[in-house]
Amino acid sequence: MLFKYVWLLTLFTSIYLLYSHDYLNEIKFNFISKGLNIINSIYSSLNKNSNSNSKLNKEQKVFTPNELKKYTNIKDGLYISILGQVFDVTKGAKHYGPGATYHFFTGRDGSLAFVTGIHNDKEIRDISLLTVEQLKLLNYWVQFYNENYIYKGKLNGKYYNEDGTPTEESHKIQRILIHAKEKQFEKEHKEKMFPPCNVEWNPDFRSVWCSKKSGGIEREWIGVPRMLFESPNFQEYRCACVKLDSNEYEEKKGMIREYVGCSRTAIKCTMKTNVVES
Question: Is the whole model's pTM more than 0.70, yes or no?
Answer without folding.
Answer: no
